[in-house]
Amino acid sequence: MPSLSVLANFIYTQLFVKVPPPTQSFAGRTVIVTGANVGLGLETARYAAKLGAAKVILTSRRVDAGEAAKRSIYASEKLSDPNVVEVWQLDLCSYDNVRAFAERASSLPRLDALICNAGIATTQFKLAEGHETTITTNVISTFLLALLLLPKLRETAHETGQLAHLEIVSSLVHFFTDFPERDARPGQLFADLSDEKKARMDDRYNVSKLLEVFVVRQLAADPELMGARSNTSPYPVVMTAVNPGFCDSALRREFYDGPKITKFAMKAFEWTMARSSEEGARNLVLAAAAGKADQSWHGQYISDGKVKPVSKFVQSEAGKKQQKRVWEELSVILEKIQPGVTKNF
User: Fold this and answer.
1) I want to staple 314 with a disulfide (CB 3.0 to 4.6 A). Which of 15, 44, 137, 319 is the partner?
2) Does pLDDT of 155 surpass 80?
């Protein structure tokens, strides 16, 4: 359970902290936003188009939903060039689909920002590709896609002389889990997370967001991985874990199908506390903005438009051990899916 200080900070930031609308130009840039047919992803893609991106690629599991989102962007931004916004199908529950998507994206002339926004929140236990669906979607496939496209991001950064951005959309809820799964035997963390008898699905979304923070921090901290850089030659791809805040979102659609009292309570909480999807998207767009000043954001948790501390558990010695362990076990899984992918740095 989160501490009183964490809850107080959550309430304060939700009600009183406003990130200003981003204004930095995206002219000439190519941006991919996963899960962009609704909510945060759609508003993030809309901002990229508004700020002049040359190419904005929306991903959606259903192409028709993506096309509706595309029409919404063209209508609101009054775009005249039919080639600015494209819709590509992406299903994070299929490793083959992720690989095919990455192969297609790797043929783009450039890729300046990959915003990994797609994710699920469910209390229903199901398997996808042998792992619990939340873990497959929010963690394994998300980082599979990120690492598959890292070479293209790095190539673009070198060719343009600007930093590229690899953004994992995380959440404040990484503060909310005690993560008892950390007691799994060595090499068995992801197996335990995929064991229905051991699954704590009411906490699963929180755990998935904690795992994302762990991996981002580990990749940036390991001198043999993305952390390898110097003052004269910084790593050209800034990787961040970004918290958009608690927003109006289709993410919680499952709760609306439950008992009326649950639906009413959720709606009341959202009406009182939630930011709009547009407000939440400001954080995502800000973190994906080009500029050398962003260099110090590499490996950081971004919230309310600035670098913020991660949870006390993540900062603790126990958390640091789990961070390394999570990456080691995830890297084994990723290598089985796509041999050599963890060497893409």
Assistant:
1) 319
2) yes
Contact 251, 136 (CB under 8 A): no
Judged on CB neighbours under 10 Å (0-12, 13-18, 19+), 80 is: exposed
Find out whether 129 and 95 touch, Cβ atoms under 8 Å. yes
Give CA angle at 117 (236, 234), nearest 5°.
Answer: 10
CA distance 117 to 60: 11
Predicted local distance difference test score (pLDDT) of residue 271: 74
Query: Hunting for tokens 């673009």 — which residue is that?
Result: 156
H helices of the chain, in order, are 4-16, 39-50, 63-77, 95-105, 133-135, 142-160, 189-193, 204-221, 253-256, 260-273, 277-287, 312-315, 317-337
* Topology of domain 4-336, CATH: Rossmann fold (3.40.50)
Angle (CA) 281-122-19 rounded to 5° is: 15
Q: Looking at per-residue confidence, does 250 or 40 come out higher?
A: 40
Write the single-letter amino acid at 306. Answer: K
Catalytic residues: 170, 205, 209
User: Rounded to a whole number, what is the distance in angstroms from the first to the last CA of the chain?
Assistant: 36
Among the listed residues 90, 226, 241, the one whose alpha carbon sits nearest the alpha carbon of residue 147: 226
pLDDT per position as a tens digit, 244-262: 999 887 665 665 555 665 6
As a residue count, the chain comes to: 345
CA distance 57 to 68: 14
Q: Which tokens hold the place of 136?
A: 């497959």
Predicted structure pTM score:
0.94
